[in-house]
Structures are given as C-alpha cells and as structure tokens.
UniProtKB/TrEMBL annotation:
The protein, known as: Uncharacterized protein
Gene3D superfamilies per UniProt: 1.20.1050.10
Signal peptide residue numbers: none
PANTHER family membership: FAILED AXON CONNECTIONS-RELATED (PTHR12289:SF41), METAXIN RELATED (PTHR12289)
GO cellular component: cytoplasm
Source organism: Mytilus galloprovincialis (Mediterranean mussel)
Domain Metaxin glutathione S-transferase: 200-261
Highest taxon above the source species: Eukaryota
One Pfam family linked to the record: GST_N_4
Lineage: Eukaryota, Metazoa, Spiralia, Lophotrochozoa, Mollusca
C-alpha cells in the first residue's frame, strides 16, 4: 500500500515537472522565433530607434547624439522612435529606412551618404579627412571607455543611473557588465588615476588640434564633428557630478565647441531634454 502511494507521488511529480519544463521550453522557443510586429512607417523617411530623451542633452548615448546630429547636418528627413528595442546586433541606435534595418552608426552613415548622395567632407583635403577620422576614432574607441568607467562605475552613488530612474537591482547588473566589458577591453585593468590620465591626454590632444578653429577642421563643420560632438556632449552635459567634466572644463575651446555645435544643429535643444527628469521632452 505504502509502495503504491510513493509510486503515485513519483508519477505525479514527473507529470507536473515535465509539463512545467515543456511550458518553459515552448515559451523560450516562441520568444526566439516570434517576429516582433512590423510597424508601418512613412516612405523615404529614416526611422531612428533610440532610447528616451536625456536629462541635460537630447540623449545619454554618445552614438545617438552622433547620428541625430548627422541627420540634421545632412538634412535627411527622419522621425524618432523612443524605446528599449535594440538592433539585431544588440546595440542602439539603429534605423529603418523603407523597411530595411541597419545598425552601427558608421555603417548607417555610409549607407545614408550613398543613398542620398551626400558628402559632408567634400570641401576638405584627404589629409584633413584623415586627421578628422583619427580623432573621431580616438574618442570613440578610447576616450569613450574612460567616460564609461567614470560615469557608470567610479561613481559609488550611481548618480547617473538614479537620475534616469534605473532600479537599484538593475544597477548592480549594469555595473557588473561595465566592469566585465572594460576589463575585456583592457582599460578596466587600470587604476582610476591612470584612466583619468588617459582621458586628459585625449582631451588635451583634441584641444591642441582644434585650437582656434570653430569646428574640428576649421570654420565649417565636417561629418566627423557629429561623432566628436556625440562623445564630448556626454562629458559636458552628462557627467552627473562625476570627475570627467572637470577635465573637459580645463579646455575652454572644447567647451565652446560643445556650445557651438548645440547652437548650430540643435535649435530645439530645450524641447529635446527632460531638464533633469523634471519634465517630458516634447520633441
Ligand atoms: N559602434 C556602435 C556603438 C553603439 C553603442 O555602443 N551603443 C551603446 C549605447 S551608447 C549600447 O548600445 N549599449 C548597450 C549595450 O552594449 O548593451 C555604433 O557606432 O553604433
């Protein structure tokens, strides 16, 4: 009799366990194969997918700032879609154009230049273009990581995360992700003092190069200014009380550059920010 009871219990737990497992597997497979509903967007308009507007600049993402500034500079018709959906490569921003999805700001800009027959650098020499690209890449591939560490990891109060409303338990995982990524990159193995030294050297060389120019290469902006502005905008407006801002403030010409780029391409800046999360951005 007792043996029968135990047998029944084993059978019941096997059935329940199997059902739960099957449900979980079905949900996971469904999630993977299910295609998100395709939305209809206007023809010949770039749909720029980005996260919500930022507190003191239109985005907290360097690359969103870069791409949206480029779209404005190139006068390409675009509309914003704010949300948390990342590109197929797991990053943002990304775009849709007449149904085609593209990710990575460099590939996107190349595609748009070709599609709209645009060359924002046509009046510059090959040597100037080369220098502009080198500075862009220094900022995007090196300075960016110092700023990432300053903003998301060195600040023990996580002021940036808290200001934009990230829940505490998510902050833990995000900080861990920054730690792992920067360690893999290499910069995360340095001490904070060394990282700030790297940041300062980059900013100093950019400041020396720009000198009295209004923009990166002279009195008129070039395509690479969009990326340079994207990176500097985060140090200038989104340092969240941390240290990297104090390094930028040492260089008057870089601060004036930020203000100049804002004036030139973002006349609607005030409508595109949340003023420290105190209001909804209207644009
Ligand atoms: N090379 C990429 C970089 C984009 C990028 O790193 N985006 C960040 C936001 S600033 C991102 O998606 N981070 C989320 C993640 O890596 O999971 C581009 O130019 O688009």
């Amino acid at each position: 009799m007792e043996i029968l009871k135990v047998d029944n219990l084993i059978l019941i737990s096997k059935v329940v366990g199997g059902t739960v497992l099957a449900t979980v597997v079905t949900c996971l497979v469904w999630k993977r194969i299910r295609k998100p509903e395709k939305k209809e967007y206007p023809c010949d308009t770039v749909v720029l997918h980005q996260i919500s507007r930022g507190p003191f600049a239109p985005s907290i993402s360097q690359y969103v700032m870069k791409l949206e500034t480029y779209l404005r500079f190139a006068k390409i018709p675009y509309m914003n879609v704010h949300g948390s959906q990342k590109s197929k490569k797991g990053k943002y921003p990304w775009i849709e154009y007449n149904g085609q999805e593209l990710s990575d700001t460099e590939f996107i800009i190349e595609f748009l230049n070709e599609t709209f027959k645009i060359d924002l650098d046509e009046k510059f020499t090959a040597k100037e273009r080369g220098a502009a690209r080198a500075f862009q890449k220094m900022l995007e591939e090196n300075t960016f990581w110092a700023v990432t560490l300053d903003r998301w990891l060195y600040d023990s109060k996580s002021s940036g995360f808290r200001l934009i409303g990230v829940p505490s338990w998510i902050i833990f995982f995000l900080r861990r992700n920054v730690k792992n990524t920067t360690y893999a990159h290499g910069i995360g193995r340095h001490s904070p003092e060394e990282v700030y030294h790297i940041l300062d050297r980059d900013l100093q060389s950019l400041s020396d190069f720009i000198g009295t120019n209004k923009f990166l290469l002279g009195d008129e902006p070039c395509q690479e200014d969009c990326a340079v502005f994207g990176q500097l905008s985060q140090i200038y407006w989104h340092s969240f009380g941390n240290k990297c801002n104090t390094y930028l403030k040492k260089y008057d010409n870089l601060c004036n550059y930020c203000e100049r780029m804002k004036e030139r391409f973002w006349p609607d800046w005030e409508q595109c920010i949340t003023k420290g999360m105190t209001q909804k951005a209207t644009k």
